Amino acid sequence: MLKDNGPLLFINTVSTHVKEVPHQKIFDSRTQKVQNIKTKSKLGFLEERKLNNIIEMYQKNRPVLCNIICEEKEIIGIPFKKNDCKLFIKTSEENIEEIYLNNITDIVIIRF
Known about the structure:
mainly beta; five-stranded antiparallel sheet; 1 helix; 13% helix
């Protein structure tokens, strides 16, 4: 004999394809993953934090000389600014290099 516990609730779900839009986060409850389309940086959390600390030191008038290792080349200079996708490095008094954050594989501090 079945007990009547009241009305039953049925939930219908819909799967739709969503176009990728820059600066939009996609939440997929089926996979429990969050995908950030904005930038897919290869920098891990510790490297990102390290880079932010180096830039903060520059802003406090304590530049840090680094070797920025990229996929194609190595750049020796002082990182001084970062935006969502690029890092700006002073290689000499008048030269400034711009590299994409996605291309950085390692950051080695040479001198404080």
